Amino acid sequence: MKNFTYLRYKTLGSTNQKLYQLAKNNFPEFTVVSTEHQTSGKGQRGSTWESSANENLTFSFLLRFDDFPSHEAHLISIWVSIYLQKFLSDCHIESKIKWPNDIIIHQKKAGGILIENQIQGQKIQFAVVGIGLNVYQKNFQGLKKATSIQNEFPEFSKGLKNFEMNLINFLFENHKKLKPENKNNLYQSYNQQLLGFQKINTFEQNGVCFSGIIYGIDEHGRLLVKREKSEVIEIFDIKEISLIY
Ligand code: BTN
Question: I need a surface site. Which of 71, 117, 146, 187 has the fewest CB within 10 A?
């Protein structure tokens, strides 16, 4: 049952940016900002997110917390990755989560998540969770590893508006599962959908490639990898390593 504020704009620079302003102006929990055409989309680590008008989903929603420690921030990313992947799976769109939170279909990136937190003291006051999901876009201007749902599943033909509303409802229905007490369940579900989990993968670290097995994530959301021919499981932070896929 829908019970949230939904704001739809024809054009916006960034849904995350807009919602962050609204959050500071006391808009309620689970306010959603969505746009047909996002012109200055923000990606992870200062990158941009390009999305052609009326072909994809670009929206953000607001989570507010009373008592969510900032050292558990990674749980937000884990939770949203799990439920986005699960929603797609329920729609018969098989995908994987590439650590930490990319949505991969057939070895290409179809979706990205950007979370921006407002922290006070040691607590997260609110989080703006932005989702970009490529649905009908055909061309990605030379981005070899980018794709859309329809590029990978040509039979996919759901109306974009309906698809978006179903996804938002699904996230809304499940957002109470995002709590530190539930972290072991979240880690377990996350690992099961993690690209390359318990398999040999190629990684790049400081320009050097190596092979290793992914053992999942630790309690801080860092990636656990055992290099081939090594007995030691190493722990990697987001900036330290990238998975070649
Ligand atoms: C990534 O780099 O993988 C994250 C991309 C996140 C893009 C989404 S689109 C909706 C929301 N608004 C933004 O400006 N970015 C996020």
Answer: 71
